[in-house]
Design brief:
Endonuclease, Chain A; 3 helices; about 35% helix; Restrct_endonuc-II-like; DNA repair; DNA damage; nuclease
Length: about 130
């Protein structure tokens, strides 16, 4: 378990690189809301967007998660507790006025970065031009 990084994982670094290439600046490994003891991987303070890069195993990805065969009960409870904590985090941050975005580690970093960029810098509505 000591080998599992809590920050600067390969998926995080790839996503941050893509976000940086799009001209976005952000904070890393910070609590969006001081009173909520949850640390987001990437935080856009002005836009109030918190991004979490979730590992497929640790957060129970519906596409890639495979239950452990050894000590199965312990691990299934652990993963379920992680899922519940993720849902609680989403709810607490939303209640504080933050938008939470979750990216799975298997997602294409370029596509995820574009999705995040659209949320951070929404395109302005087209203005009607009168003749």
């Amino acid at each position: 378990m000591r080998g599992n990084r809590s920050r600067d994982t390969k998926p995080e670094k790839r996503l941050r690189s893509e976000l940086h290439a799009l001209g976005l600046r952000y904070k890393i490994d910070q609590r969006p809301v001081r009173e909520v003891r949850r640390t987001a991987d990437i935080v856009f303070v002005k836009a109030r967007i918190a991004v979490f890069v979730d590992g497929c195993y640790w957060h129970g990805c519906p596409e890639h998660y495979r239950a452990a065969t050894k000590n199965a009960e312990f691990w299934s409870q652990k993963i379920e507790a992680n899922r519940q904590r993720d849902a609680d985090t989403d709810q607490r941050l939303a209640a504080a006025g933050w938008h939470v975005m979750r990216v799975w580690e298997h997602e294409d970093p370029d596509a995820a970065a574009r999705r995040i960029a659209e949320a951070v810098r929404p395109t302005p509505p087209e203005t009607a031009v009168s003749p």
